[in-house]
Amino acid sequence: MTMSPLDQLERKIADRSVVVGVVGLGYVGLPLASALHSGGARVIGFDVDPAKITAFTERKNYLKHLGDEMFAELAASDRFDVTTDFVRLGEADVVIVCVPTPLREDRSPNLSYVTDTARAIGTTLRPGQLIVLESTTYPGTTRREFLGAITESASVHGQSLRSGENFLVAFSPEREDPGRKSHATATIPKLVGGLDDRATRVACDLYRIGIREVIPVSSAEVAEAAKILENVYRAVNIALVNEMKLILSDMDIDVFEVVRAAATKPFGFQPFYPGPGLGGHCIPIDPYYLAHRAKEVGREARFIELAGEINHAMPAYVVDKCMNALQTRGVAPDRARVLVLGLAYKPDIDDVRESPSFELIELLREKGSHADYSDPFIKATWKMRRYNLGLKSVELTPDSVASYDAVIISTNHTAFDYEMLAEHARLVVDTRDAMRIYESRMGDRLIRA
Ligand SMILES: NC(=O)c1ccc[n+]([C@@H]2O[C@H](COP(=O)([O-])OP(=O)(O)OC[C@H]3O[C@@H](n4cnc5c(N)ncnc54)[C@H](O)[C@@H]3O)[C@@H](O)[C@H]2O)c1
Predict the structure, then answer these.
(1) Strand, helix or coil at 344?
(2) For residue 107, is pLDDT > 90?
């Protein structure tokens, strides 16, 4: 008896002969490709950016935090291939989509990367394929926009296939946290929700090739909403401690000590720490995806809007505190030279997406101050969608540090020499509690913001 294409897909997953296409070889797609490859699958990486493909042919790792070894292993493997040729999507039994889901200028979701990819998948769709969306998005996207674009494009190309009958579709949110040492793609539990039961089951089996714990949920919508909840939870809790920081600072109470004290409670409290604003691809962006969908069903996402407002106000608060401290030292804003430490949005990685450090520099310039930055991971800035700072990283030496009126610690990279800062900086504005052990030595040369 001949096997159906979907039965064949299940057999290939079981015996590891499955070919997996990963679309979008960025912070999410590349480690996922590596995890599935390590589990024994053959992987084809797809990207619209030819530089990613060249990086593999020239063996130049473009995501340092993943380690050169992982990159070299993939580049050398005969079970791994990269391409910009999307016609080859037809070769893949499974296609996993990890493309960006940014916001438009008006903070509405920009799903164009997802729908463009879905249309490309549709052009080569064949019976027996499993298609999984990983990009973070609002509940309903996989069933409406993603599947809609796939089937529409497939029918234009003469294929009239139905999800659940000839091919399968699922959503599985990515929970990547670049730079975190305690977890990697293979050890972060993976949620999977299909558009039907078979899609859930087959997608779970597929992910088990490279991921230790896979958790099925009852639908794609539950998986989509769970991811958004995780990120809204972080955005709201960070806003809460940022607001606590403003209140407690006016009472001369140290918010970091307060959070750490509260965290000694063994249940019912999870610590979040204040900072100079929100950064990264996820927390500043994803909640607005839910807010958009909430509006469509006639609800207001009030927590999300308020958290956004509070978190977005942080860079201005930090700059104002810095300017006030300088003015009491007789340095006028338009004569001040300020060095911002850390351009990446979090410690020990080179990811600058949505980093509040850019806004700090922009706000300092608006005050008329001269602003520079130092970041061992980012040697120079480049032209971005919103910012074009035209700066090079300043090397941190006793002389360079002493030449600035103030140093703002925006990102607490481990590589910074904090003792040297304590010794030589005229004023340190610490947004990360990085200078606590030097507090008594620094006296009024240290302020928190
Ligand atoms: N970075 C994270 O830590 C993280 C964590 C969880 C979830 N996510 C989500 O995962 C998704 C991907 O994020 P990322 O951080 O990997 O982004 P990224 O920018 O690092 O990578 C995206 C990649 O997709 C490529 N690309 C863009 N359009 C494409 C297209 N039409 N076809 C093929 N490739 C295309 C880009 O060239 C890039 O290499 C987003 O939805 C994001 O919200 C990211």
Answers:
(1) coil
(2) no
Instruction: Please tell me the distance from the alpha carbon of residue 207 to that of residue 190, in angstroms, as a whole number.
Output: 8
Separation of CA 63 and ligand 1 centre (Å):
13
Element (H, E) at 223: helix 220-250
Residues 162 and 283 in one domain: no
- Establish how many alpha carbons lie within 13 A of residue 78's alpha carbon, considering only the half-sphere containing its beta carbon: 0
For residues 151 and 174, the answer to whether their CB atoms sit within 8 Å is: no
Q: Are residues 36 and 158 located together in one domain of the fold?
A: yes
Residue position matching structure tokens 């234009």: 156
Chain segment 298-333, per-residue pLDDT in tens? 999 999 999 999 999 999 999 999 999 999 999 999
As for how many domains the chain has, the answer is 3
Q: Is 345 helix (H, G, I), strand (E, B) or coil?
A: coil
Which range of residues forms the domain containing residue 151? 5-218
Average pLDDT over residues 231-245: 97
Query: Which protein residues are within 6 Å of ligand 1, measured from CB?
Result: 23-29, 46-49, 52, 98-101, 113, 116-117, 134-136, 174-176, 178, 281-282
Which of 261, 282, 312 delimits the end of a domain? 312
Domain limit, last residue, from 199, 218, 237 = 218
- Helices 147-156 and 112-123, packing angle to 10 deg: 40
Q: How far is CA 442 from CA 279, 370, 409, 448, in A?
A: 29, 24, 15, 12
> Could you tell me whether strands 168-171 and 190-194 are parallel, antiparallel, or unpaired per DSSP bridges?
antiparallel
Could you tell me if 263 and 155 lie in one domain?
no
Assign residue 429 the CATH number of its domain: 3.40.50.720
* Together in a domain, 113 and 184: yes
Q: Kindly report the length of the chain.
A: 449
Same domain, 209 and 269: no
Specify whether 322 is catalytic: no
Structure tokens at 92: 């893949």
CA distances, 326 to each of 24, 323, 331, 356, 376 (Å): 46, 5, 5, 21, 26
Kindly report the backbone phi and psi dihedral angles of residue 190, in degrees, each rounded to the nearest multiple of 5, phi listed first: -115, 125
